[in-house]
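**Reference record**
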Amino acid sequence: MPTTLTRDCLRLDRNLSDAEYSRYRELIDQRRGFGYYQKLEIRDAAGKQLTTPGSHPCQAVITILDAHGFPRDFAGKSVLDIGCNAGFYSFVARLRGARSVLGIDQNQHYIDQANLMKEIVGIDVDFRTGDGHSLDGGIGAFDIVINTGVIYHLQNPIDFLCQMAKLTREFMYLETEALLSPHLTDYAWFIEGSYCEDHSNWWVYGPRCVERMVRAAGFARAEFQGFVWTPPPGTKTPEGYDRQGRAAFTCWK
């Protein structure tokens, strides 16, 4: 691989020319208008750095996810990264040995960002625009599905999870917004309006609720890996709601 995953960046095994570096900085900036979510840190062999202006610190988050069940070894596996955004977790899967990776996102601007990152880091991942609700058997099945930051954005999460079950051979790694109170672990909160100033946030689930949804969708078992992030006590959203956490699950076929 022409790139290595380190604790603080995706490190290229070559030096970017001045012309390449200037061009990539310009192309990253051109895609700013649609908004970045994933913050990728890319550094060449000479130390020149390219950074996407996202709010999701990928390098820090993958360390946390690794401690909560994210696969450290994808050797020989086929992988679907659903809701791939700018492609960071797709790249991680390939760098950890995946035979093939397909990254899908319904937003074309994220696929454009992912393809630019692919050009820079030189990692072979197939990125396509698509909707998880409508994926069919034409794309085949995958040994592992990566499903991070998706299901709380969906009005109909069970339909989506049923589609993921059909496409998964071995297991799905799922990460989502989650209710923190142990008294609410069996429940889901439907958000009628905005949450964290985002009108696409529809649900926050209790951990046991997620496990039950996953089993109902066609997975044999689901294992709660713990909360990957929790806010300081008393934190409120701009709407005045109690800010909830994020949790991870391994979902086995």
